[in-house]
Structure formats: structure tokens, C-alpha cells
Specification:
Structural class: alpha/beta
Bound molecules: nicotinamide-adenine-dinucleotide
Number of helices: 15
Largest sheet: 7 strands, mixed
Shape: globular
Strand content: 15-25%
Order of helices and strands: HHEEEHEHEHHEHEEHHEEHEHEHHHH
Strand order of the largest sheet: 9-8-7-6-10-11-12
Helix content: 40-55%
Distance between the termini: 39 Å
């Protein structure tokens, strides 16, 4: 888990400051972009199944909307903090800009643990969250989506509450809805596939065939499972995956040297992405400590769980065989770790580029909602591939041309686009 001293917002600002120096941004612009434009903090009272009342804390941070309506997920997490939401809203601004979609950056969250909440209690949290913010989100203002421990059902409850309050149909107010109820085909796999499109291109640039490579994943949830699905279909071999064990309150790594089998692992995984360790042992997996995913002798590492996983303490332990890290999770690598990865010569595809497939497909979902006409899965995924591949090469070429670390190159492109929009509007 994240250490208690780790603050993602401080890290997001540190990353921004470094690029602001590089771009020689003026003070006013820096001040505007270092903090969210707007923040909402509120209480969500819920009558629990046993008749008692509990009050949950909810947030929405709207970092910047100069390029279009805010966009960003809602997390349900017991350790959620407003600083995490602030950081994530900022990363959303850069993410939408780096893949060049006309949206800004937002993020939301509720401090709660869905593991210990009934579906009814979760529904009341979703509806309560929307009631608190119904005047400040809209298809033209700020559009939420699923994130850690929230899913299509949560989004549909939120949509329903929003439409009940406003009295009209607004399918574009929220994305990640179920297919057939305003959702887009391809959205479920979009983030994981997007991560793997970037890996595919990075391997191509290096003249490496995917079928000769191995990978290790942290997390076995939405992002990791679909990234692994595409990786398997490209011929790659996954050696290890790690996941959180709710019963033991710790993480484990599941390793099979001959290659993990996605279908088999999915069959023993709960809806939160937790792998059953007893069944994994029966299927011949080694069950190792949670951190073991990071020290495997593989070509590719995919952190796809939490922030602050590759830090000053863990980065040195990464095998010299690792050539590539594609960040499925948001903020998995700290600035200190970045320096170590640079020294090790590892090609890092930064989070806000690598995992931008989700928001890109959310954007496609909105476009389809606006037209009230829906594309086929193939159409969605081919448009997604095109967007991700274009963005990857823009960043990679700038990194090569200016001899920049990939994260800095991605920031330069994204921040420049946002600054340009703010300046064109006359904000700074
Ligand atoms: P998820 O809830 O579906 O899965 C999370 C996975 O991480 C689970 O397998 C869980 O067991 C595992 N995990 C949790 N704590 C762990 C730990 N300490 N060690 C090892 N594994 C642990 O979430 P997701 O949607 O796959 O998101 C994963 C990451 O990707 C998050 O950082 C999220 O913000 C980011 N992300 C998700 C999307 C998306 O579309 N889902 C888009 C962009 C970024």
C-alpha cells in the first residue's frame, strides 16, 4: 500500500514544477495550473442496512477546463484523501491534453470500502454523491466515470439520480455506463488495451518482437486483465501478477515461470481483482510476497494497481533485464524513482500517456451519446488504437529530439497545450 508520508499531490506539483521550469512558464500560469480551479467537499449520509446512519466523505476536484468539459473518474477507497483527488484531477488535465481530446481534468472520490457495503448501501452512496454535486457536473461542464472500485452499475445509478434531479435524459453526463444503456463497446478493455498499444509501439521502435518478451503485472483488475489479454494475443508471456488479498489484508504475487494463463486466473479472481491464493496454489502458481512482481527477470513491467509502488526504496530492486515500464496505474512512480529508472536506461511510458485509453474511449462514449448513434467494437478500438499510437509517437519523437525522459516529453506536450488554451482564453 502507499506509505503514509507519500502525498500524490506534492508529487504531481513537483512533476509540474520541473516542466514549468523547462518551459519557462510565468508565475501567473504556474499558479493557475498548480491547483484545481474548483473543489467540492461534502458529506453523504446513508441509512445502512442495519438501520444505523453513516456519513461518508465525498470529493470532486475540477483542475482545469480550458480545453473542454472536465473529465475524470470517481474512486471508492477507504484511504481516499482530497490530496489524492487533487493530484488525479491534475493528471487528468495532462492526460486529455497529451492524447489531444477536447476535455479538461477532474477527479472525484468517496472515502468508503465497497468490500464491506451491500449493493443497496453502495447505490445510496452513488445517489448521495450526485445529489451533492448535481449543479456542478453536466455533459458540458464536468463528466465523471468509473475508477478504482467503481463500475458501470455505479455509473448508471449516478446517471439515474442526475436525470431524476434535472428532469431530462443526459446520457453524456457520465461515462463508463453499461453497453445498451448509453455505454460504448470497447470501454471495458480500453485502458488495458491502450497500455498495450503503447508497449507494442515501444517494442517496435526497439526492433523487439512481442512474442520474445515476458512481463510482470502489479494488479489484476480491469486495467491489468485487459492489458494482459492483448499482450497474450500479441504472443507475449506473463510470468507474474500481484493482487490485494482482502481476507489477509496484504498483497501476493502469483508466479508461473511457464506463463500465467489469463482465462484460468480470471476464473479464480473476485470482482475486485483479488486472486484466490488457495485455488492459485492448486493451479500450480507460486504464491510470493506482494512486492515480488517488481523484481522479476522480465522485459516489461506493468504497474496497474496503486500509486507510489516504484519509489526510491523499490526502484533499485528492478532487474537489469527490464527494458520497458508502461504505467497502467496513476502515479505508480515517484520522482526519485524516475531518476533511478533513467540511470538504469529503462524506457518509461508515463501513466498519463499509457493509461489514457480509458478517457479516450470515454470521450468516444460521449460523442456517441451526443449523436445517439453507436459504433461497433471494432470501430471504437481502431479509433482508440489510432489515437494512442499517434500520441505515443508524438511523445517518443520529442523525447528523442530533445533528449528528454519520456515523462518530461509527455508533460511538455500536454502542459504546452493546456497553457496555450488558457492563454488563448485570456485567463493568464
Ligand atoms: P481495479 O479496482 O479493477 O483493480 C485494482 C487491482 O489492484 C486489483 O487486482 C487489486 O487486487 C490490486 N491491488 C490493490 N492493492 C494492491 C497492492 N497493494 N498490491 C498489489 N495489487 C493490489 O482497478 P483498475 O480499474 O484496474 O485501476 C488500476 C489503476 O489504473 C488505478 O491506479 C487507476 O487509477 C488506474 N486507471 C484505471 C483506469 C480504468 O479505466 N479502469 C483508467 C486510467 C487509470
Amino acid at each position: 500500500m502507499s506509505s503514509s508520508s507519500y502525498n500524490p499531490y506534492e508529487m504531481a506539483k513537483e512533476q509540474f514544477d520541473a516542466v514549468a521550469d523547462l518551459l519557462e512558464l510565468d508565475e501567473g500560469t504556474r499558479e493557475l495550473l498548480r491547483a484545481p480551479l474548483r473543489e467540492y467537499h461534502f458529506s453523504i449520509p446513508v441509512r445502512m442496512d442495519d438501520g444505523s446512519y453513516r456519513v461518508f466523505r465525498g470529493f470532486r476536484c475540477q483542475h482545469n477546463d480550458a480545453r473542454g468539459p472536465g473529465k475524470g473518474g470517481i474512486r471508492f477507497h477507504p484511504q481516499e484523501t482530497v490530496d489524492t483527488v487533487r493530484a488525479l484531477s491534475m493528471w487528468m488535465t495532462w492526460k486529455c491534453a497529451v492524447v489531444d481530446i477536447p476535455l479538461g481534468g477532474s477527479k472525484g472520490g468517496v472515502i468508503c470500502d465497497p468490500h464491506n457495503l451491500s449493493p443497496r448501501e453502495q447505490e445510496l452512496i452513488c445517489r448521495g454523491w450526485v445529489r451533492q454535486i448535481a449543479q456542478d457536473i453536466s455533459p458540458l461542464r464536468d463528466v465523471p466515470a468509473p475508477d478504482v472500485m467503481t463500475n458501470a452499475q455505479h455509473m448508471l445509478w449516478m446517471l439515474d439520480e442526475f436525470e431524476a434531479i434535472h428532469g431530462n435524459k443526459y446520457p453524456g453526463v457520465i461515462t463508463g455506463k453499461p453497453v445498451g444503456k448509453g455505454g460504448s463497446l470497447g470501454r471495458t478493455e480500453a485502458t488495458g488495451y491502450g497500455v498495450m498499444y503503447t508497449v507494442r509501439e515501444a517494442l517496435k521502435e526497439r526492433g523487439i518482437k512481442p512474442e520474445t518478451t515476458t512481463a510482470s503485472f502489479q494488479g489484476f483488475g480491469n486495467v491489468a486483465q485487459y492489458a494482459m489479454e492483448l499482450y497474450e494475443s500479441m504472443g507475449g508471456k506473463t510470468i507474474a501478477v500481484s493482487s490485494w488479498d482482502q481476507g489477509d489484508q496484504t498483497s501476493y504475487t502469483f508466479k508461473k515461470e511457464s506463463g500465467c494463463n489469463l482465462k484460468e486466473l480470471r476464473g479464480i479472481t473476485d470482482r475486485f481483482g483479488g486472486v484466490d491464493k488457495t485455488k492459485a496454489k492448486e493451479l500450480g502458481y507460486e504464491v510470493l510476497p506482494g512486492e515480488a512482481w517488481l523484481v522479476q527477470d522480465v522485459d516489461i513491467l506493468i504497474p496497474a494497481a496503486l500509486e507510489n509502488q516504484i519509489n526510491a526504496a523499490t526502484a533499485e530492486k528492478i532487474s537489469s533485464k527490464v527494458k520497458l515500464i508502461s504505467e497502467g496505474a496513476n502515479g505508480p512512480t515517484t520522482p526519485e524513482a524516475d531518476k533511478i529508472l533513467q540511470k538504469k536506461g529503462i524506457h518509461v511510458i508515463p501513466d498519463f500517456l499509457a493509461n489514457a485509453g480509458g478517457v479516450t474511449c470515454s470521450y468516444f462514449e460521449q460523442v456517441q451519446n451526443n449523436m445517439n448513434y453507436y459504433w461497433t467494437r471494432e470501430e471504437v478500438l481502431s479509433k482508440l488504437d489510432q489515437k494512442m499510437t499517434t500520441a505515443y509517437y508524438e511523445v517518443s519523437k520529442l523525447a528523442q529530439r530533445k533528449k528528454l525522459f519520456m515523462r518530461d516529453a509527455a508533460y511538455v506536450i500536454a502542459i504546452n497545450r493546456v497553457v496555450e488554451a488558457c492563454k488563448a482564453r485570456g485567463w493568464v
